[in-house]
Design a protein that fits this description.
The chain is an alpha+beta fold. Helix content is 20%, strand content 20%. A hairpin with a 2-residue loop joins strand 7 and strand 8. It is globular.
């Protein structure tokens, strides 16, 4: 009996051990980070990821300032699943390095002032300036694994305001390079009132999500994409504004590093009045690096302040740009205005900001007035415009050898019909474009008279028959080719012009376009198959806000490839190039995949590959995307397009973040197209479809040779063998960041 009882006891203990072990294994599985296909760790072995648990989360338990000014913060470091990390890297993988900030909002002010500053000397000369900085020389004590208390070496001064809103900032990194998982970055802020009385009211104007719309999405807690600065360690607006406030000045240029000023100036870049007159906008940073922002081209209309000051971002002071105008913020963009003397300011000299809101109310009764919203009205989107709304209803007679009839609608924003006669004056226009098949545009001829529009035909639709309600019918004069098969597409474009507030100081004449629409139809009775989806308009507008090109006529990414197809070049405009040297060069290919990749590669074309990408456009205009902009004075060295996505180290031009433009993983859907791309200035002409798209970014000789070596005259490109979704070198995996 005793042996049986002992056996049962041992068995019970073993069962408990097994249950605990099983629970631990389940817990470990549950702790696996929610990785996405865009992160490097996604492709690491499951065992490695389970062991390392990549990512870094810093959180604050509490903070205090003692009566003698001693500042301390109790904080935790963990992986994204909440498991505690050992900062030394002994008990858990990866050493963690952190820095600490402390600041408060002085009475009557809206911005932080740092408790910790130092004097910085200019690289040359004797100038010095004060700059906010992180603490040094403090002490760290361990509460438990993953929880620590940092006591600042810097103390709050005697008589500090214990009732002021106070912010602790922590930023740092976790080094996982030993496991080939890079470096994870994180930061956090904690607001409190030292006396314990009341609720903190910190500055809260712009949120990270607004920045990351352009600078790269922070995909998960393990990801280091998105807003980053100073080597990647500062990753949130809340951290930035601790130091970037009026205390901090660049001693080399005298430029303030106040967030209200320098962020506006950076984004204005080449549009700054001071830059337009030949004075560069520069900040001298770490190790005396010169950061010249004079060539920045903001990807949206610079007057669209709500791109950053997003009224829907949930920030407590998101409307401060409208409700609290002042010389520092407003003068950062309008830097040819001297508020002290009144130069270029219709309101005259202003000694303080006290009177600004008298004239500059948030919103007035009309566009282009002195109100904040009125003064920043984008002309072609002024609410006083009638609006232009297209609809494509149906296509009849759409069979081989026939001239199709399109039923479409043209309305103003109230739904009233717009007469065709409105489109026949001045620069006004209304056109329909036909292209096909959708399997790949580019090499369908609609007649010998369409040589200047290879692969498509565009006809003016102003002769359409319309009802007063705005429903119209137009029959093409060009026929669908006799041997056509599959699905064809018809798109619509048009614009009107208007003069708002004529005979007043606010008189403004502008063009405005309708949003392009497309309709697909089968020419042979087969199922309608729209052209493949590669990018999404919402992705374009995340950066561009409202993308419109070609004089307001083109504004829908499903419409662009109709003209920007594999066979098209700038041949029709190159001979009239305003830059004589361009006239004798071969035409430039403008297929959409190649063109957009090269435009976004931008400055890297020249900096990395020693090449350029210049399209001769309407009127012979030179559009140089690799080296120069016409809007920047020749006295300022130019660097071309800077793709705004930030890599882990905080530098822009991270063109590996393909998912910012591509929809549904389309970058790994191969082949990219069927038709060869005409590329007279490229290394291969004609260029196979996938090769053309990929080598638009990867322009080095090795990549071009690799693509060519894996292309057969008989069988075509072999790209999908290695780079298609799920293959060994899946295009998404190859471009994955940390």
């Amino acid at each position: 009996m005793r042996n049986s009882s002992k056996a049962r006891t041992i068995a019970g203990l073993l069962l408990v051990v097994l249950l605990v072990a099983g629970a631990a294994l389940v817990a470990a599985a549950d702790r696996k980070p929610a990785l996405t296909v865009h992160e490097k760790a996604f492709y690491a072995s499951a065992n490695l990821v389970d062991y390392v648990q990549p990512g870094l989360v810093v959180s604050v338990v509490s903070a205090k300032i003692a009566s003698d000014g001693t500042i301390s913060v109790d904080y935790k470091v963990a992986d994204p699943n909440g498991a505690s990390l050992d900062s030394s890297g002994v008990a858990t993988p990866g050493t963690i390095s952190l820095s600490f900030l402390a600041a408060y909002i002085p009475t009557g002010q809206a911005q932080f002032a740092s408790y910790i500053t130092h004097s910085v000397a200019a690289a040359t000369g004797s100038a010095t300036a004060t700059q906010a900085t992180s603490d040094s020389g403090g002490t760290t004590t361990t509460v438990a694994q993953g929880e620590y208390v940092y006591t600042f070496n810097t103390k709050a001064p005697s008589g500090f305001n214990a009732n002021a809103t106070t912010r602790i900032g922590i930023y740092g990194s976790r080094n996982l390079t030993q496991w080939d998982l890079g470096t994870d970055y994180a930061d956090t802020t904690y607001d409190f009132i030292p006396s314990g009385t009341g609720t903190p009211t910190p500055r809260d104007v712009v949120r990270n999500a607004d920045c990351n719309a352009c600078h790269g999405s922070a995909i998960t807690a393990t990801s280091t994409n998105g807003l980053a600065a100073h080597g990647g360690t500062r990753r949130s607006v809340g951290i930035c504004i601790i130091c970037h406030q009026p205390q901090t000045v660049d001693p080399n240029t005298g430029n303030t590093l106040d967030m209200r000023v320098f962020i506006h100036k950076i984004h204005m870049g080449s549009s700054l009045p001071s830059v337009q007159t030949g004075k560069p906008y520069q900040i001298v940073g770490h190790l005396n690096s010169v950061n010249d922002w004079s060539t920045v081209e903001y990807p949206a209309n610079i007057e669209r302040c709500e791109t950053c000051h997003n009224p829907k971002n949930g920030a407590a002071q998101t409307n401060a740009w409208m409700t609290a105008p002042g010389a520092a913020a407003c003068g950062s963009c309008h830097d040819n205005v001297n508020f002290a003397t009144g130069t270029n300011h219709p309101g005259g000299a202003q000694a303080t900001d006290a009177q600004c809101a008298t004239c500059h109310i948030p919103q007035g009764t009309q566009s282009f007035d002195a109100s904040i919203i009125g003064a920043h009205t984008i002309a072609d989107q002024a609410p006083e415009l009638g609006g232009l709304v297209f609809g494509l209803v149906s296509v009849t007679n759409g069979t081989p050898g026939k001239t199709p009839t399109v039923t479409f609608t043209v309305h103003d924003k109230t739904g009233a019909g717009i007469p065709m006669s409105n489109f026949t004056t001045g620069s006004n226009s209304l056109s329909l474009t036909m292209v096909g098949p959708t399997s790949d545009y580019g090499y369908t001829s609609f007649g010998s008279d369409t040589a200047s529009t290879p692969g498509y035909v565009t006809e003016s639709a102003t002769g359409a028959s319309c009802t007063p309600s705005g429903t119209c019918q137009y029959t093409f004069t060009h026929a669908i080719p006799a041997k056509a098969t599959g699905t064809y597409t018809i798109g619509i474009e048009g614009r009107l012009s208007a003069t708002l507030f004529p005979n007043t100081p606010q008189s403004t004449t502008t063009n405005y376009g309708g949003v392009n629409q497309v309709i697909n139809f089968s020419v042979d009775g087969s199922p309608v198959a729209p052209r493949r989806t590669v990018v999404a308009m919402a992705n374009c507008n995340a950066c561009h806000s409202y993308l419109e090109v070609h004089g307001d006529l083109r504004n829908n990414v499903t419409y662009c490839p109709i003209c920007h197809n594999p066979s098209n070049t700038d041949a029709s405009t190159r001979s009239s190039a305003t830059v004589t040297a361009q006239q004798s060069l071969p035409p430039q290919g403008i297929n959409f995949a190649m063109m957009i990749h090269k435009i976004h590669t931008g400055a890297n074309l020249e900096a990395v590959y020693g090449k350029d990408y210049i399209i001769v456009g309407h009127g012979g205009s030179e559009n140089d995307f690799g080296a120069a902009y016409a809007s920047v004075p020749s006295s300022i060295p130019n660097t071309g397009v800077r793709y705004p996505a930030m890599g882990p180290s905080g530098s822009v031009q991270d063109t590996a973040e393909c998912y910012m433009c591509h929809a549904g993983g389309s970058e790994a859907v191969l082949p990219i197209g069927k038709n060869a791309v005409t590329d007279p200035q490229g290394p291969i002409n004609p260029d196979p479809a996938t090769t053309s798209a990929c080598t638009a970014c990867h322009l080095d000789a090795g990549s071009v040779a690799h693509a060519q070596a894996n292309t057969s005259t008989q069988f075509g490109e072999a790209c999908s063998v290695c780079h298609a979704a799920g293959a060994t070198y899946d295009a998404i995996q190859v471009h994955a960041g940390q």
